[in-house]
What we know:
- α4 (92-104) runs parallel beside α5, α5 packs antiparallel against α9 and α7 packs across α9.
- The two termini are 27 Å apart.
- This protein is an alpha/beta fold.
- The chain is built from ten helices and 18 strands.
Amino acid sequence: MATRPIGIIMNGVTGRMGLNQHLVRSILAIRQEGGVPLPDGERLLPDPILVGRSESKLRDVARAHGIERVSTDLDACLANPADEIYFDATTTPLRAANLRRAIARGKHVYCEKPLATTTADALELAGLARRRGVKHGVVQDKLFLPGVLKLRRLVDSGFFGRILSVRGEFGYWVFEGDWGPPAQRPSWNYRKEEGGGIILDMFAHWRYLLDHTVGAVTAVHCLGATHIPERVDERGRRYAATADDAAYATFLLRRAEGEVIAQLNSSWAVRVYRDELLQLQVDGTLASAVAGLRDCKTQRRAATPRPVWNPDVPNPVDFHEQWESVPDSGEPDNAFKTQWVLFLRHDAAGEPFPHDFHEGAKGVQLAELALRSWVERRWVDVPPLPSPPDPLSVPERGDVLSSPSPSDPESGTDGPAAAC
Length: 420
Ligand SMILES: NC(=O)c1ccc[n+]([C@@H]2O[C@H](COP(=O)([O-])OP(=O)(O)OC[C@H]3O[C@@H](n4cnc5c(N)ncnc54)[C@H](OP(=O)(O)O)[C@@H]3O)[C@@H](O)[C@H]2O)c1
């Protein structure tokens, strides 16, 4: 079968997400399968070039995974017409500027969440991409988790009757780094000034997850906290944690049959006593379900126990036993890879891809409004975002960016792709 190569500039692959989820479990896994099948019978074969600031780290990654091309010159990579897609998994505050450069060069752009650190920047990126006519997408991996796919099937089938509420628990203990186990997350996550904070990090997920499984988020109430005020960084230095490491939030969701209340705890300072790191319980008049990353269990109206409060005797009921598992439908695949395949087919064959920058901006908006709710100690409405702009009505900034000037370091210069 004929293969068609597609060059992908991958920025941030020396980091956790870029390396593990995007390079190894997505792009390299797709290559190992012989590429993405296209409607015309060809297979699209990703050809990554790894870009970053540390040549030695990039070379180590490339060597370990049999990749030929690395570069420390992003502008040179962006100047190479053979590399059609720019992917970004760098730290959150770097994303918007990198994407602007890529869009200006006419690259199709795909990136980690959150799309930007402010709604204004996120909407600007959506406008720029639209005006430049490039394909754009944001990672919304949780939608492709097997447990969440099962939950969504239940919701779509009307299984719950009228949905009343959602309660969610996300989190685990992130080690402080001051004894024994090293911290499992990078230190910038705990520094507000470097784009850290669990609200900016996780509410981008909660937005698309709630919007597309249960109902559109219309209001948020959020209380954040910095439970662990001091941590130890990658080099063993103590630092003040200036960002939120937990958030206790309530949301209102709109469904045709009425409002749904959702409560979600997000924490990097909680010890796990549940089946999976993310657990969502949905209760409805006819049934309930508890979904995790892979599994989903249900209990119907007729099977609902009638527990009796009696602390004077040992609990006679095993509540967990009374739930039924939703069967798998097919062999589950990695959620990030599934979304990469969709983006690549969108890029090469024009298939629909709803996870675009406008959707990504909604996640940033929810994080921003949750932070406002915390600061102002009040409920905050989540208004609809302005519709994606018409390609011809985007502000002038798009024009400036689409014709790079040598005096603008953000816009880059033409040149050969470095060390490809
Ligand atoms: N979808 C999800 O479930 C999920 C989960 C976690 C994180 N994320 C998102 O993924 C992104 C990356 O998170 P991570 O945990 O992978 O972070 P990370 O491990 O710290 O990796 C950050 C990457 O950015 C690069 N970088 C950092 N500072 C840079 C600079 N000044 N100039 C150029 N490159 C720089 C790093 O390169 P060096 O190696 O050279 O430092 C590294 O490649 C974040 O936006 C985060 O919100 C998504």
